[in-house]
Design brief:
heterodimer, A: alpha/beta, Rossmann fold, 7 strands, B: Rossmann fold, 7-stranded mixed beta sheet, 5-stranded mixed beta sheet, globular
Chain lengths: 287, 326
Amino acid sequence: MKNSRHLNRKELTLKLETIARKARYKMLEALCRAGSGHTGGSLSCMDLLVALFFHEMKHKPQEPGWKERDRFVLSKGHAAPALYTVLAMSGYFRENHLSTLRKLGEKHLQGHPDRKSTVGVEVSTGSLGQGLSIGIGIALGARIDSKNIRVFVLTGDGELQEGQIWEAAMFAGHRSLDNLVTIVDYNGLQIDGYINDIVTLEPLAAKWKDFGWRVLEINGHDYNEILDALEATRQPAGKPTVIIAKTVKGKGVSIFEGKAKYHGIAPTAEELEIARKELLGDGTDQI
Amino acid sequence: MGLTRFERVPPASELKFEYMRQRYGEMLVKLGERYNDIVVLDADLSASTKTSVFASRFPERFFNVGVAEQNLMGIASGLAAYGKRVFVSTFAIFATGRAWEQIRQSIAYGDFPVRIVATHGGITVGEDGATHQATEDIALMRAIPGMSVIVPADPVEVLQVIEFIVDYNHPVYVRLSRNKFPIILDESHYRYQYSRAQVIAPGKDVSIFACGYMVYQSLMARDILREKGIEAEIINASTIKPLNVEDVVRPVKRTGRAVTVEEHQIIGGLGSAVAEILVENHPVPLLRLGIRDRFGLSGSANALLSYFGLDANGIASAVEAFLKQT
C-alpha cells in the first residue's frame, strides 16, 4: 500500500474523504446486489475503517500473514460490508469479489466476517460482544513476544449492552494493555430503536475511565478528529485506549441518515441511484 | 491380559489412585518447557484445575481472567489467532455452559486450535451438588461443528491425550474429573489413538462402551458378571467425537449387544454417539446407562454413583437384566 504518512494533514484528509465516498458507494452497490444486509451501521463506521486501513494501521495486503502487522477485529460483525469494501480497496482481494456478498459459495463473502473464507479477516465475528476479548488475546500474544503490534477493535454501541464487553474491559484495564485500542461506533441506534430509550450506555466515557482506560471522544466523521485520536494512541499510555466516536447511522446518504429502519435492510436500486449522486456527484468522478 | 494392568480388577487398596488434574498440571509444565509458545488460561479455579502448577513455573505465560468465562474463551481465541498454543481450563459446567456461544463463535467457527481441558465433569463432583455437576457438557461440545471431545479413562491415558492435543491443530474439548482415578491401563502397551475406541478387556456376550471413570467401574462390573457366567468386553471409548464407526460396529457384530456407560445424561453423550452409529450401521439391542434426564444431587462421589446405578454393582445388575430381556 502507498504510504500516506508523507502527506500533510490537509492532503491526507482530502485523500481519505475521497476514498470513503467511493467506499460507501461500492459497499452500497454490493448491499443492493445482495438484497439484504446492514446498511446503517456499515455507513456509520466507514470513515473510521478508511482511516485505519488507508492510514493508521501497519499492514501488507499482498502479504496477509505478515507477522508484524497491526490487527483489526470487527466486533460489530454486521458491518461486514464496510470491512469487505476496505479490504478489497486496500488490495486483499479483487473488488469484483464484493458481488459475492451473501451469495451461496464456500469462499464467498459471508453475511458476517468469516476468517476461513475471506482473506484479511483476522477473526470470525457476528455474535455481538465477543470481539473485545479476542482483541485482548491478540494483544497479550504480542505483548508476550515484545512485538510492536497494535490491536484495533471496532465495537458497536448497542453491543456494549453485552456483559462480556465489561468482563473484557475490566481485564484489559487491570493488565494495562496499552497496545489495545477500542473504537466505539456510537451512532445511538440499535435494532429496536434509540439506545437511550432501550438501555442507555451513559455515562459511557466515565464507565471506560472507571475500568482503567484512557478515553478519547471524537466526531467519528471528522477526519481531523479521527486522525488526532489515532495518532494519540501511538504513544503508549500505560493503559488501553477507547475512542468513543460519535457517528450517524447511515452517514453519507441523506435518505439513510439517522434511521433505525436501515439497520438491517439493503438499499433498493432507486436508493442506490440517490446514493450514487450524493456520494459521487455527477458521475464524472472515476470510481 | 489386554491393555489393562490386570486380569481381574484388584481391590481399591491395591490400586494406585491419582488426580487426573494433577497429572494434567504437571504435564503442562513439561510441555511448557518443550514449547515456548504454550499459554494457559484459567478463570479463578487454577488451584482446582491444577493450571496453578503451570502458573507458578511460567507466570508470564499464564493468565487468570477472574470469574469471567465468556472473556476467558474470547481471550483464548485471540491468543490462538495470534499464533500461541493455547490451553484453557475451568470447571466443565462453566466452560461448556456459561461460555458455549463463545466457544462456538469465537473458537470453533474460526477453527482456532484452543484446547479446552475442563475438570470437574460429571456427578463425581459430589458434595457441591447439581449446580456444579456437568452432565450435559459432552452433548454441548459434541454438537459444535469441528469440535473433538475426549474423556480419558485413567492417569496413564490423560498424559497421552494431553501429549496428543498439544500438536492437534483444531479445537478440542477434554473432560477430566474431580476425583482420583486408579491407574488401570498398562503404560507399556496402551497407546491413546485419536478417534479410536479400544477393547481393553475381552468378552463374548456383550460390548460395554465406557468413558472416563466409568471405564474403571465397568471393568469391576465385568468381574461381577463373570461370576454369573456372563462375559462382557470393555471398550474404552475415550474419544467420543469423532468416534470411529468400525470400532463400534466390529465388537458388536461379535457380541450382538451393546451397553454404554457414562457419567453424563444419556441424551447427547457417549450413549447417543454409539446409538447413532449402531442404528445406521448394525442395529442391535442397546442399553444406555447414565443420568436419565434429571439433575444431580449432593453426596459423596461413591454414594452418587451407587444412587444413580453407575457403580460396578449397578452396572452389573443393569447389564444382567438387559441380557435376560434381549
